[in-house]
Amino acid sequence: MGAYSGTILDQFDPTGIVASLESMLNKHYDYSTEERDALRHYIGMQAIADQYGTTIAGGLGKIWEGPEGGRTENKQIQREVDLINNMKALEDYSKGNILEINVDTNRFDETILDSLLKEITIPPKYVPKKKKKKGYF
Fold it and tell me: Which of 2, 76, 81, 93 has its CA 20 to 30 A from that of 121?
């Protein structure tokens, strides 16, 4: 434990970790929404594991994604991809493959993130379900 000590990801609250990570990814990197989502799940899960351990982090990830079913096909695929990235992050963390953050800049090396994006699963573009128009015609 302690890989993220002294960084913006060193927080007690898991939602704070994810919010800080999302803000950093939006502010400093030019990735698509889907790529940022994949990175957020992977890095966030490692940061939560660093704070609470892999068992609790894994449980929190499953709870956050919710149970199967009751979703559109697109949202179900999104859920499955998120869980895959969470699991990969925890497996890598358990093996000591922890994504390092620069403590001085609170940023990740972009070449490392680019490489990571080749190893994790990028979710499909979210397509909201079209609502039927109300009216007579």
Answer: 2
